Fold this sequence. Notes:
heterodimer; A: mainly alpha; 16 helices; 58% helix
Amino acid sequence: MKRAIRFLLMLAALALAVGLWHWRTPGAQPEPPVQPPPGASEAATPTGPRAQVNMANGSPAAASAATAAAAPVAPAPGDQRVDEALPLWSPAVAEAQMRALEHAEECRWLAGTVVASIARQRELREWRWLPARQVAAERAGAEAALARLTQSCTEDDRRTPDAARAAADASTLRAAAQAGHLRARLRLLGISADELTAIQRGSLRELLVAVLQSGDPALYLEIPAYQSALYPMQQQTLADLSQPRHEAWTLATCDLGLDCRAGSPMLDRYCLIDSAAACASPDLDTALHATSAPWEWRRIQRDRAQLVDRLRRGDIQGLFDPRARPGGP
Amino acid sequence: MRRAWMLYALMLLIAAIWSWQRLAPQAPAEASRAPTRPVLPAAAAPATTPRAAPAVEPPPSAVLPQRAPPSVQIDDQQRLQTEPDLPRLAAELEQRAERGDGDAAEALQQLLKQCSVRAEFESGAIPAELVWEVIAEGVGAGRVPALQAEYAQLVQRCGALADLDEDVLADRIRGWARRAAELGQPRARLQVAPDEDARRAAAAELLQSDPAAMVSESAALGTLTGYNRYGWLMAGCLLDPACAADPLAMADRSISIGSTLGARSYAELLNLSPRERQIARAQAEEIVALYAERRFDLLLAAPVRR
Lengths: 329, 306
């Protein structure tokens, strides 16, 4: 009996030791991550047209600049605080400074590797499969668009900014925002919904209303990039379903007077970033029609018509309000 | 003294059992957190044969992996569409899967996926009314009543399975898919095999016997090869006499509650823009030509990445 107990004790002690060792070994407990199903990442490929930063708004570096300048927060519309370290600019000076800043950013961006990378992906995924004549027209269109957009870029514009230049750019952005410049203020707020506080979302809503009140269609192009940031993450899906599509906003600006024909900066940017179809299209309307599913196109057209109608009538009340959930908030 | 020894031994024995349970990777207590062995809900078992709590999953070597005869596979697929009592079918499939039938495990994960429809519709993230509104935008409002009736019927067929929590269902679907892959089922291996070569081999095996896999597995094939998912989908259509003559008409006829929630079917062709359709058609023609020559090496070659 004693021998049996000792044997049992030894076994138990051994099991206990192994168990404790296993318990203390880091990483021994969690289940290994599950392999995502194939195809899950296909839609998220960084080269997919929908994944590109939208350049048509004239702010090619909007995303990166928003990150770079994330520290300062745009003053709320009624906020009178003044940073005395920054120059005090008139609206006209702020606009000129912002144009210079955005131009240099676009030049750097166009001189970088992204445009070439997009072209390579187009070769593999699209141009290999399309008729030669169509491909030739799109290639030529892309080259012409690049030439037009870069014709006024200097070597200095293209150069990667050193620390001093980056600091000066950030300062320009803050000074322009302080002068009330809407694009600068939008950029300082950022476009990442999960990083915005409720107060910042409120500021963003007021800023977007101010953008609409400006009556400047070129500024309206900023709206789609910021629209989804208006809602906290848990409301995003609901908001996505009820907000006008990105394309609807863009086409509405064309209807309201922005030049969206071949050779315009708008279509050139769309060609280089969003869709090769735009490179050989007479206008943005044709390009978007070619790249939208029929049911999607119907929705874009409906949203576009509603937007144009409301904007022409100045009826912007509630345009950025989230749609109420059926049966309650 | 002797009683103290006995007490000490008892304590150590309890500790040993505790540590052994921690080490046992497939213990039932862990099933809900890490369901390598998915467990059907009690309601899934036939009422006449109450089932004991499932034992620790036997290691894959304990059962001989096997394939169901083609006639049984066809029957399974048919029953997935028509069986009025899906929990009963699930219980049957589970029993067969436990005996090593990879096709049963695969059919079971398909069944569970089908029954996740309610979780998809009523999870609360999006109100159901809005989901129907979006579906109406895609398929036309006139189709919605028929889809709603189909939804109600599916929920009824799923019984208790439709009431399962979304995460629980997702865990079980993943678990049975892994099990099917372990048992050698090619469709499951294509989905979950850890490396591309294994998935490519599974794709070759699948396509050789069943060109319809170009449709059902279009997403997986799209990530694995130089053709995109729509190229594979269109190729499946061109190889199907019922679809080839008029792909869009076929796509329209294929709209179902499953397709609106992402199940692979010809209905996906309705999501293509004119440009994407042009590209898909060109890819499909190449796929069909290579398929006719049985050039699986070229069909399944890795995409060029530059």
